[in-house]
Amino acid sequence: MKKPFVTLQQAQEIVKKYPTPFHLYDEKGIRENAERLKTAFAWNKGFKEYFAVKANPNPFLIKILQEYGCGCDCSSMTELMLSEAVGVKGRDIMFSSNDTPMEEFKKADELGAIINLDDITHVEIVEKTLGKLPKVMSCRYNPGGVFQMSNGIMDNPGDAKYGMTRTQIAEAFRMMKQKGVEEFGIHAFLASNTVTNEYYPQLAKVLFELAVELRNETGAEIKFINLSGGVGIPYRPDQEANDILVIGEGVRQVYEDVLVPAGMDDISIYTEMGRFMMGPYGCLVTKAINEKHTYKEYVGVDACAVNLMRPAMYGAYHHVTVLGKEDASHDHIYDVTGSLCENNDKFAIDRKLPEIEMGDLLVIHDTGAHGFSMGYNYNGKLKSAEVLLKEDGTTQLIRRAETPKDYFATLDCFEAYRFLG
Ligand SMILES: *Cc1c(COP(=O)(O)O)cnc(C)c1O
Questions:
Q1: pLDDT for 283-294, tens place per residue?
Q2: Whose CA is nearest to atom 7 of ligand 1?
Q3: Superfamily assignment of 280-411 in CATH?
Q4: What is the pTM of this model?
Q5: Is domain 27-278 classified as CATH 3.20.20.10?
Q6: Which residues have C-beta within 8 Å of that of residue 307, sequence separation ≥ 6?
Q7: How far apart are CA 357 and CA 322, in angstroms?
Q8: Ligand 1 atom nearest 229 alpha carbon
Q9: Using a 6 Å cutoff on CB, does residue 155 contact ligand 1?
Q10: Ligand 1 centroid to 186 CA: how many Å?
Q11: Does the beta carbon of 233 lie inside 6 Å of ligand 1?
């Protein structure tokens, strides 16, 4: 059973201060998980997690992770600016972007970030943009084909727009070395939301073997290997959570098997996890405001897909708990909907739930990553607040809700704007 990290009593107190809907984050859960990650990779001297800012660009949360040694993985101008504002700078920033505008390379370099090139054509573009290549650089690898794990989980790197082919990455390393790069890194992201302890070790094997080959072929000094994101979380109640300690140990074994015998035992392991760091430690708190009985039973809530896009966009499952009715019989079948004029604006379809009454508070689970951050303003809907549930049980507003004034702010070129604002 999936249990929310907030009780009905707590939620009733919180909604007095912050009206629904809002994303609520669990400070205790974030901290315990970050600590476990540190332990899992303590065997690797240079280990660093670069939190994928796109998963949750809230500076308060990034600051918590910073206490555990995490840096930031950025892929846009504003993500770089956010990292700078939070005080994450220099080599604590990994710039893993694609289809990159030139000025973003410039900004990344100004901040001293490690630039991770998505494509071989960027070698010359970066050189031209910056005058010369930075001393430390990384390249993103795409082996093509399919990436398959033993339990049937697979993904399709061959269809993905990211990364360089095997031939290209060797050529890129040669060019970069000749242009003065001294320290090299390798990066790959080959499968998403993997709910298995196998993914990182299997990816590590691919990248470690590649590292040995590239060193032998090009003489490049490889200093770090970036396993990127992709470690999943159990969105469904019947899924078993990954054990990061098992994952860390799995990577260590491959390191011993492949890198140590090749004399490459000083390579740092980097990660760029987003979902695993934050996903389970956020939820969307929303209120039932309408019921409708037509060809199906509908419960309408005050949140909608602009607050959490994953169900509408990917058909993703997010568990729903009706607070205070955790133990009640789940003998009703509902579609839980938002108010967008889009039929895919449903948080749950044909979901077995306890009987829902108007005013009930619902928790939509696992919204801590790729939740608020994917928000948009369709139908003129406004983005919600974000609230931190602190370890001592108190709450802190870490982002206010948007107001109509925010929505109209970019219309300051419209003469009647003053009536709207
Ligand atoms: C999205 C992304 C991540 C984070 O992925 P998760 O699945 O959230 O862990 C890391 N690195 C890059 C380059 C990404 O695009």
A1: 999 999 999 999
A2: 230
A3: Lyase, Ornithine Decarboxylase; Chain A, domain 1 (2.40.37.10)
A4: 0.97
A5: yes
A6: 21, 23, 284, 286, 338, 371, 372, 375, 381, 383, 384
A7: 10
A8: 9
A9: no
A10: 15
A11: no
